């Protein structure tokens, strides 16, 4: 299952630069008539996802900005058996027809950041319930002559492995203090991913997350020289990369390395991988205690293309 995550580069303006002072109502403060109208359309939206009905979905999407044609990006098997709930919503009266104005509205730990697409707009934030990943679906409505229509949408990570932006950042800080740099990097990376759950929400700690991630990256560049040769092993495999890999069960570190063993000799490759897994904690502190599983991908040479032949292993840390 693949879901297209739509990310945008946000242009930040200070709050004092806002020209338009819109009326913004949140949750229960929204007029009941408008609330019921949007709720009815949200139900149609959820039904279209659960039934994979593209025509139904397109019927509630505006014909403007090519969004109707892009609605198929939301059709996925992932949503069929998920309970989808609205977790937050905003009604906005921009008091202007000056399309394109950028608005920042400050709330407790985030601010609503959007481009004026219509005089009246409505933001619905929905979450499909999932124990591993929590995606945030953002629906942006605009009031058109024939009623409310979806003007824009995007999907992003609201939480990963049951943890949100702030929780991943705090975890990264604790791992960093223990010298677990690779683990701290992944946690900060997940914090950044969750902070971009919607292109219409900007968290107040966004800069802190980016700065912390950059700090860890700079330290890793100073402490790790690639490739890393595993000295303890006779075949001298060389690790050339470690990255976050998204599986159905969650995110796991994937360790990529080069072996001198023939990739068709799976028995010898497995024996070598067992030895790598035994000593991997020496090279990446905390990597076995922080993750239930580690993924390995072995290559003959440094891959120059994405479909380079390789062999993979999954190792459990639960009994160690």
What would you note in describing this structure?
The radius of gyration is 23 Å and the shape is elongated. The chain contains eight helices and 13 strands. Mean pLDDT is 88; it is low at 1-19. Helix 4 packs antiparallel against helix 5 (181-195) and helix 5 packs antiparallel against helix 6. The chain starts with 22 loop residues before the first strand and ends with a strand. It folds into three domains: 15-160, Roll (Nuclear Transport Factor 2, Chain: A); 165-223, no CATH class; 228-316. The longest helix has 20 residues, at 32-51. It is α+β, with helices and mostly antiparallel strands.
- Main beta-sheet strand count, sense and barrel state: 5 strands, antiparallel
How far is the first residue's CA from the last residue's CA? 31 Å
Number of helical elements: 8
Number of strands: 13
Beta content: 25-35%
> Helix/strand-derived class?
alpha+beta
Name of the CATH architecture of the largest domain: Roll
**Oligomeric state of the chains?**
single chain
Helix content: 25-40%
